[in-house]
C-alpha cells in the first residue's frame, strides 16, 4: 500500500521517502494517531527492501521479560529459559527495525537501545558475548519527543540518535483534498461498486477526523455495513460526523446573529447545537431531501418511502419554502434553513435531480 494523497505535504513526504529508502539513515516519523506512520515506515522499507521489516511495539515493552523480547537470551539465562531465544533486534539484523510508539519505551530500555544505535552491537540476556548488527532504525511516535525530553521522560541522547531525519505526517483535517481519494480507495477495497451520496461526502469533508485515516476507514466500513444498497447515504454516517456538520453551519450563523441582533447575548439555538443536538425538524427535512434525491423527484414514491401521506409531504415542502422570520427574534434562528444554513430546499434538491427531469 503506497502513501495515498495528492496534497502538497504528502507529495513531498512521498518523494522524501523514496530518496531515503536506499540509505541506512535513521528516520523518525511523527504524527497524530491514525495519520499513517506505520504505512510510511513500510513504504520506506518496501521501496528498497533489504532483510526483514521487524515492527517492535514499544508500548507493550513493560515488565522483566521485555529485555529478552528485544535482545533474546541464552539457554538457562533465568528460571524457565529452557532454550536459547533470538530477540527482535537480531531478527532485524540486515533489515529494518521499526520502533513503533518509541516515546512509550521505558527509560531502562531506552539506555539499552541507545547502546545498539551507538555501538551497533548488543548482548543477549545471560550472554557474555556481544553480537554485531547492521540495522536500519525507523521510529514512530504520536508524542512530541522534544517535550518528552524536557519532561525527563525520554533520553535526550537517544532522541538525537533517532532524529537524524524527521518526517511529520499531517493530520487529515489539514489535507482534506485527499479525503475523496481515501473514501474511493476504501470503497473499492470492499469488493462491490459502492458509491457515496453528495450530502454524505459533504458531511465527511466538513468533519475534522480527530482519529485521522483510521477513523475515516472505520467510518466507511461502518457505512457499508449499515447501507441497504450500493449507494451510501447521509443517514448511514456515524452520528458524530452528522453532528459536526450540523454544528458547523448553525454555530457560525447563530454567532453572527447573536452578535448583531441580540447585543452579544447567545441566541437560543446555540445551547442545542453546543451539546450536539440536531433539531428534530432538521432531521425530518434531511430525510425528505434524501427521499426526493433517491426517487429523482417522484414525490409519490418519496412519500411512500418516508411512510407519510402525499399531502403531508406537500405541506412540509411548502413549509420549507416559506420565508424565514426576522433574525431579531431569537426564535427565528431555530427555523431549519437558517440554523442549518441550508441552501433553499428546491434548489438543493433540483441540483441533484435535474438531469433526470
Ligand atoms: N496512505 C494510506 N493509504 C491507505 N490506507 C492508509 C494510508 N495511511 C493510513 N492508512 C490506514 O489508516 C490506518 C492507520 O494507519 P497507521 O497504522 O499507519 O497509522 P499510525 O499513524 O501508525 O496510527 P497510530 O498512531 O494509531 O499507530 C490503517 O488502517 C492504514 O491501513
Ligand atoms: Mg502506528
In a nutshell, what does this entry contain?
The protein has helices at 8-20, 37-47, 66-71, 88-91, 107-119, 145-150, 156-162, 179-188, 198-206, 212-226, 239-261, 269-274, 280-294, 299-306, 310-321, 336-340, 345-353; strands at 27-30, 53-57, 96-100, 121-122, 131-132, 136-141, 165-168, 195-196, 231-232.
Could you outline the blueprint of secondary structure elements for this entry?
Elements: H1 8-20, E1 27-30, H2 37-47, E2 53-57, H3 66-71, H4 88-91, E3 96-100, H5 107-119, E4 121-122, E5 131-132, E6 136-141, H6 145-150, H7 156-162, E7 165-168, H8 179-188, E8 195-196, H9 198-206, H10 212-226, E9 231-232, H11 239-261, H12 269-274, H13 280-294, H14 299-306, H15 310-321, H16 336-340, H17 345-353
Parallel strand pairs: 1-6, 1-7, 2-3, 3-6, 8-9
Antiparallel strand pairs: 4-5
Helix pairs in contact: 1-2, 5-7, 8-10, 9-11, 13-14, 14-15
Bound molecules: adenosine-5'-triphosphate and magnesium ion.
Magnesium ion is lined by residues 37-38, 100, 140.
Task: Please give a structural write-up.
With 357 residues, the protein is an alpha/beta fold. The protein folds into two domains: 8-170, 3-Layer(aba) Sandwich (Rossmann fold); 177-356, Helicase, Ruva Protein, domain 3 (Orthogonal Bundle). Helix content is 48%, strand content 9%. It has 17 helices and nine strands. The protein has helices at residues 8-20, 37-47, 66-71, 88-91, 107-119, 145-150, 156-162, 179-188, 198-206, 212-226, 239-261, 269-274, 280-294, 299-306, 310-321, 336-340, 345-353; strands spanning 27-30, 53-57, 96-100, 121-122, 131-132, 136-141, 165-168, 195-196, 231-232. It has a five-stranded parallel sheet. Strands 4-5 form a two-stranded antiparallel sheet. Helix 1 crosses helix 2, helix 9 packs across helix 11 (239-261) and helix 14 packs across helix 15. The model is unreliable at 259-275 and 323-357 (pLDDT under 50). The structure holds adenosine-5'-triphosphate (ATP) and magnesium ion.
Amino acid at each position: 500500500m503506497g502513501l495515498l494523497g495528492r496534497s502538497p505535504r504528502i507529495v513531498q513526504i512521498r518523494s522524501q521517502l523514496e530518496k531515503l529508502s536506499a540509505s541506512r539513515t535513521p528516520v523518525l516519523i511523527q504524527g497524530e494517531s491514525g495519520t499513517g506512520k506505520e504505512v510510511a515506515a513500510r513504504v520506506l522499507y518496501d521501496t528498497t527492501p533489504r532483510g526483514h521489516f521487524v515492527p517492535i511495539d514499544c508500548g507493550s515493552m513493560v515488565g522483566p521479560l521485555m529485555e529478552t523480547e528485544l535482545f533474546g537470551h541464552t539457554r538457562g539465562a533465568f528460571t524457565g529459559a529452557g532454550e536459547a531465544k533470538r530477540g527482535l533486534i537480531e531478527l532485524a539484523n540486515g533489515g529494518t527495525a521499526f520502533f513503533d510508539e518509541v516515546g512509550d519505551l521505558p527509560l531502562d530500555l531506552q539506555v539499552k537501545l541507545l547502546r545498539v544505535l551507538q555501538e551497533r552491537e548488543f548482548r543477549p540476556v545471560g550472554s557474555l558475548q556481544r553480537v554485531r548488527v547492521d540495522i536500519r532504525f525507523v521510529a514512530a511516535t504520536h508524542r512530541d519527543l522534544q517535550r518528552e525530553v524536557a519532561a525527563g521522560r525520554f533520553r535526550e541522547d537517544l532522541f538525537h540518535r533517532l532524529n537524524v531525519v524527521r518526517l511529520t505526517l499531517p493530520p487529515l483535517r489539514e489535507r482534506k483534498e485527499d479525503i475523496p481519494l481515501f473514501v474511493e480507495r476504501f470503497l473499492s477495497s470492499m469488493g462491490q461498486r459502492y458509491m457515496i451520496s453528495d450530502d454524505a461526502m459533504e458531511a465527511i469533508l466538513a468533519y475534522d477526523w480527530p482519529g485521522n485515516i483510521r477513523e475515516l476507514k472505520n467510518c466507511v466500513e461502518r457505512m457499508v455495513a449499515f447501507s441497504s444498497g450500493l449507494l451510501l447515504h447521509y443517514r448511514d454516517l456515524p452520528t458524530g460526523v452528522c453532528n459536526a456538520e450540523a454544528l458547523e453551519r448553525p454555530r457560525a450563523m447563530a454567532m453572527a446573529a447573536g452578535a448583531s441582533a441580540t447585543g452579544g447575548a447567545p441566541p437560543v439555538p446555540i445551547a442545542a447545537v453546543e451539546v450536539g443536538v440536531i433539531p428534530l425538524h432538521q432531521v425530518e427535512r434531511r430525510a425528505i431531501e434524501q427521499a426526493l434525491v433517491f426517487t429523482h423527484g417522484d414525490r409519490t414514491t418519496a412519500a411512500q418511502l418516508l411512510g407519510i401521506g402525499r399531502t403531508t409531504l406537500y405541506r412540509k415542502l411548502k413549509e420549507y419554502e416559506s420565508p424565514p422570520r426576522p433574525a431579531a427574534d431569537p426564535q427565528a434562528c431555530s427555523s431549519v434553513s437558517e440554523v442549518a444554513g441550508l441552501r433553499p430546499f428546491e434548489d438543493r434538491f433540483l441540483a441533484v435531480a435535474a438531469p433526470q427531469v
